[in-house]
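I hope you will forgive my troubling you with a question about protein structure. The matter concerns a single protein, recorded as an amino acid sequence and a row of backbone structure tokens. Please examine both parts with care and let me know of anything in them that strikes you as inconsistent. Here, with my thanks, is the record as I have it:
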Amino acid sequence: MKRKGLVLESTNKYVLVLSAEGEYIKVPARGRRYSIGAEIDFDTVSPRRSFLPVLVACAALLLLVFNLAQQLAGRPAAYLFLDINPSIMLSLDGSACIIEAVALNGDGEKVLQGEEEKLKGLEAREALQHLLEGACREGYLASDRDNVILVSLAAPERFRLDREELESSAKESVMQLKLQAYLKVSAAGMTEARNSWRRRVSVNALLLERELEALDKGNNLDGKGSAPSVHDILEGIDPRDIFKPDQLIPGSNRDRHPGTPEPEGDRREDPGKQGQEKPGDCRNSPGNSGGGEEQPGKKEETNRERGPLSYKSVSLSAVLRVVHTASGTVFLTTEKGEELLLKINEGSSILINGTTAGIADLRYRSGTPVRVSFNLETGEILTMEIDR
């Protein structure tokens, strides 16, 4: 655009011009010199903008984002802690799958030996079941004692897995192992968990110490190091003092209702009889193909003609609590000593609306449909049909 103006200053590089509109404008001299006060025509050209600073800023930002993404890629989104006496810490990604498994004591190393790579990528509940089975095989969980299992989940809000889901899964895993255990699943803070992760200390031990101090039942752990195990903390303490009744998962052969006949499967075997599956025998737990002869009654059952199989007057063990939820697990022991693990279907429920009997559509261990009616007051199974 052509404009007119008066020359106020002239150099080899530029000419300072006063435009007719009163603007002071510098224009390139282009090798010409002008007399001061001369009126000249000049072009107003928009200055060429340099995008170099913008490009440099974008490159720096991309580099920062890339480095941050690299750091966050391996950073856990949540943590899961398991303590029996083996103490194990699992880091989880945003999908609740295992990133890393770390043993926090020597017993934990034994359970994890050769298992770290197998655990990576497993969903947290599946990994927990795998670890419980491993602890059982190593003898840290057994049917001849009251086992204590502590689990803590430290996760942000709206995480894919919550405490209740983890607790339900852990209970089912313990029931499948047929062990009596005190199980507590707690929620821990993320800051607390990260500090524990860096120190390689179990959050469960810290939470348990805090709870015992509040109850004025803390143990004197002087001399046992700065990171005592759950076993050290619980030494000499009755689990019933710190666990609620509903946190006791009963074994398949203990604490029965008064008057419930002892199933044949719970009676002590003759020394010469070996190989039959025993409640709490981890060699025959799910996932183990350990040897053992086929149970006498089991072969007879599978050889029957297919069709409805009915059990009448089957008693629930005292500690086998009927689950009053839309989904869950019921453990039944028949008078013949047969162990039945029943899982309530999604959408089914046990009827407790002021009636004395309930009916539930269940599934047998293999997925076979089961229909059960029972007395809610006494826990007695009235009828049970298994479609075969």
Q: What stands out?
A: The radius of gyration is 36 Å. The chain has three domains: 2-43, 78-249, 305-388. The chain has a mean pLDDT of 68.
